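Exercise 7. Predict the structure of Flagellar transcriptional regulator FlhC from Comamonas denitrificans.
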Amino acid sequence: MSATTASANASTSAKSVLNESRQIERAAMLIEMGARMQVLESETSLSYERLIRLYKEIAGKSPSKGQLPFSTDWFLTWQENIHSSLFLNIYEYLSKGVDADAIEVLTKAYRLYNEQVQALDLEPLLSFTRAWRLVKFVDAQMLTRTQCSKCTGMFVSEMYENAKHYECGLCNPPARAGKSKAAGSLALH
Ligand SMILES: [Zn+2]
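Solution. The predicted structure, encoded as C-alpha cells:
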C-alpha cells in the first residue's frame, strides 16, 4: 500500500467515523424527543440492531412495537386537528428562510408546539412521531393547510378543501366538542 493510499484510507475512515457519530447524535436526539423506531429508521442510516441498542440505552426501555396506522384521519379529528394545525403552522413558519435540515426544523417546531400547548394548560395531543408523520403527509400531498373562511387561521385539511366554505374546528366545532371533562383537553367557552 502506498503512502497516498494509506492517507486517503485514513481520511475516508475518519469521515465515516464522523458521519457515524453524527448519525448517533441524531438518533439520540430523536429518541429523547420520544420518536418511535419508524422515525429513527427513516431519518438515520444506522442499522436496526444499532438503533434498538441505542434506544434501550437512552430511553431505558425497549421501543414499542407496531407501526403507526397509515391514515390521515387522526389529523382531521376535531381536537387533534387543532393541535396538528398549531404544530404545522409553527413548522411552516420555521421552514421559511431557515437553512437547517428538515429534521432540525421538525425538532425545533415540536419543542415550540409543546411550549405553546403547556402555556395554554393543554395536554400535548400530538406526539413527536405523529408530528413527523404529519410533515410526511404534507410532503406527499395527502394533507395540506386551508384557511378558515371565518377566522382566517390556517388549519390542517384534506387536499382541495373548498376554501370559500371551509370553517375550522374552532369556528364550527362538532356538537359534542369541548364537553370533555378530561384535564388538559380543549374546552370551548
Ligand atoms: Zn376558524
